[in-house]
Write a structure and sequence with these properties.
Strand order of the largest sheet: 5-3-15-14-13-12
Number of helices: 6
Structural class: alpha+beta
Radius of gyration: 20 Å
Strand content: 15-25%
Number of strands: 17
Helix content: 10-25%
Largest sheet: 6 strands, mixed
Distance between the termini: 40 Å
Shape: globular
């Protein structure tokens, strides 16, 4: 690059304009919420471009709820998928994937199994998180209609559309330790021109908050030193959390201690399935930075990876994948921080869940 170059390349780590999963060209995201009194759950669908995306998964939690993850094993037949479903409702909520599958079939999208264009079987990997009863009604959970609503919303959104964060979609009833969780998303453009992005439904048994300082774990080592809340603000926040927990225990309320954080990491780099699986695995490092402890028996922590294949990796550089692997962990950690900051507190028959901003402000 010369000094006269009016369009220098973006430096490493420059966020994309939206700082969202949809910064990977062709990826769309749709949310849907379960309706009705006592409902606090929903579904999020990540829709791949026409023709699908190379996909992989890495499951680290001890209590996962998943569908079609074996199809993503690099040793198996399916090469590409058209959608990934993140959903609330525990194992019941996996029914949301049926609605997505039906919609894809109507579009003629899926694995071709016959001579006619309509003879397809859509492969729809899905993972669920535990939010049963958090709105008060144990049976208010996503079903096929919720999945259809979410994929329809994704398909109707323009390419590169913003992604709603906080208590939407699969993050509607999510909690993170003692705080309200939700949906978060982040992206980065690497010096190579590759985009790496993440979307997370944060619903962790572990804590996202350093109890000594009030700083989010995800914000340590993420660039600029994190801003520490004042000691007075932090003390007041801890007191509010303690009183909220005591009130919940006094009434015999509260949700069972089951959780699960589920996420999608996507890139426009051209990855084979084994490389995508490595990306899904290293992205868990970002989850481990942001939530402590993580991957417990009461979590089902699951990360999917998608590759749209727009940018080829240089064949002369066998470790070109490394910067993508590192970026996957970074954007997932940052997506978790954004989920916590975007969440709004809720209070209802299922309990009161305070948000980070309720306690610490902006």
């Amino acid at each position: 690059m010369t000094h006269e170059d009016p369009h220098p390349p973006e430096p490493p780590g420059t966020p994309e304009p939206l700082d969202a999963l949809t910064d990977v060209a062709g990826i769309r995201v749709g949310h849907a919420r379960v309706t009705g009194d006592g409902a606090l759950s929903g579904t999020t669908v990540v829709l791949a471009p026409e023709g699908g995306a190379v996909a992989a998964v890495d499951v680290r939690g001890g209590g996962p709820g998943t569908r079609e993850t074996d199809a993503l094993d690099p040793r198996n037949l399916v090469q590409r998928v058209d959608a990934v479903v993140l959903t609330g409702g525990s194992a019941y909520g996996l029914d949301a994937a049926s609605g997505v599958m039906a919609w894809l079939e109507e579009q003629g999208r899926g694995v071709r199994v016959g001579p006619r264009p309509d003879q397809v079987v859509p492969v729809v990997p899905a993972a669920c998180l535990f939010d049963l009863g958090r709105g008060g009604d144990w049976r208010a959970r996503p079903d096929a209609s919720t999945g259809r609503a979410a994929v329809t919303a994704a398909a109707a959104s323009p390419s590169g559309a913003p992604v709603a964060e906080g208590g939407v979609g699969a993050g509607t009833g999510a909690v993170a330790g003692q705080l309200k969780g939700g949906i978060g998303t982040a992206s980065v453009r690497l010096a190579s021109g590759v985009t790496v992005a993440a979307l997370v439904a944060l619903n962790a048994a572990g804590s996202v908050l350093d109890p000594r300082t009030g700083v989010l774990y995800a914000e340590y080592g993420a660039g600029e030193p994190p801003a520490h809340p004042s000691p007075e603000t932090h003390a007041a926040a801890q007191l509010r959390l303690t009183r909220a927990q005591e009130a919940l225990e006094a009434t015999g309320g509260g949700a069972p201690p089951f959780n699960t954080t589920i996420a999608v990491v996507a890139t426009d780099a051209a990855l084979v399935r084994a490389q995508a699986q490595k990306l899904a695995g290293t992205a868990h490092d970002g989850l481990a930075r942001a939530v402590r402890p993580v991957h417990l028996l009461t979590d089902g922590d699951t990360v999917f990876a998608l590759s749209t294949g727009r940018v080829p990796l240089p064949p002369e550089n066998p470790v070109a994948l490394n910067e993508i692997l590192a970026a996957g962990a970074d954007v997932l950690a940052r997506a978790i921080a954004k989920a916590v900051r975007a969440a709004e507190g809720v209070e209802g028959p299922g309990g009161a869940f305070l948000s980070y901003t309720d306690l610490y402000g902006g």
